[in-house]
Every structure is written in structure tokens, then in C-alpha cells.
Specification:
By secondary structure, the chain is an all-alpha fold. It is 98% helix and 0% strand.
């Protein structure tokens, strides 16, 4: 009977040790889960902040593209206007040259008469 009690006590001790080991393992897993949850929350917050930064950058890029388009259009319009003014100047110069030639001819003719 003493032997049966000793075996029973040994089995009880072994069971208690196994329960303690399992409880320690569960506690370790719970701690790991808590850490993983904290990491997940931090990463989610960082993702949200990065998404916000990304949207702000996309808005800045869109604004810069709009400014560049406007500047490009303004530059093209200025170049077109400059070309038109150049043509007008050349046309005016040609007309004035023609008038000058006519005046020189009249002057030469009046000098011959005189």
C-alpha cells in the first residue's frame, strides 16, 4: 500500500509539474500575443501616417504638374506672341524700307530737275 501511495504521489507530482509547465507556456504565449498586438497596432498607425503623407505628396505633385502645365502654356503663348511681333516688325520694316526707297527716288528726281 505504501508503494501504491508513493506511485500515486509521484504521478500527482508529475501532473502538477506538467500543469505548471503548461501554465508557464500559456503565459509565455499570452505575452508574445500581447507584444504582437502592440507591434500590429504600431505598424497600423505608421501605415496610416504613411498613407496620409503619401496623399499629401500626391496633392503637391498634382499642384506642381498643374503649375508646370500653366507655365508651359504661358511660355508657348509668349513664344507665339513674340513670333507674331517679329513678323509684324519685319513687315513694318519692309513697308518703311519701301517708303524710304520711294522718297529717295523722288529726291533723286527732284535733284535732277533742279
Amino acid at each position: 500500500q505504501a508503494e501504491a501511495i508513493a506511485k500515486s504521489e509521484a504521478a500527482k507530482k508529475q501532473t502538477e509539474d506538467e500543469v505548471k509547465r503548461l501554465l508557464a507556456e500559456v503565459e509565455k504565449m499570452q505575452k508574445s500575443k500581447k507584444e504582437a498586438d502592440a507591434d500590429f497596432t504600431q505598424l497600423s498607425n505608421e501605415k496610416g501616417a504613411l498613407a496620409k503623407d503619401c496623399k499629401a505628396l500626391e496633392a503637391k505633385i498634382a499642384e506642381k504638374e498643374k503649375q508646370l502645365t500653366t507655365a508651359s502654356e504661358a511660355s508657348a503663348a509668349a513664344a507665339k506672341k513674340a513670333e507674331e511681333e517679329k513678323k509684324q516688325f519685319a513687315s513694318n520694316k519692309e513697308a518703311l524700307q519701301g517708303q524710304l526707297n520711294e522718297l529717295q527716288k523722288k529726291l533723286a528726281a527732284s535733284e535732277q530737275k533742279a
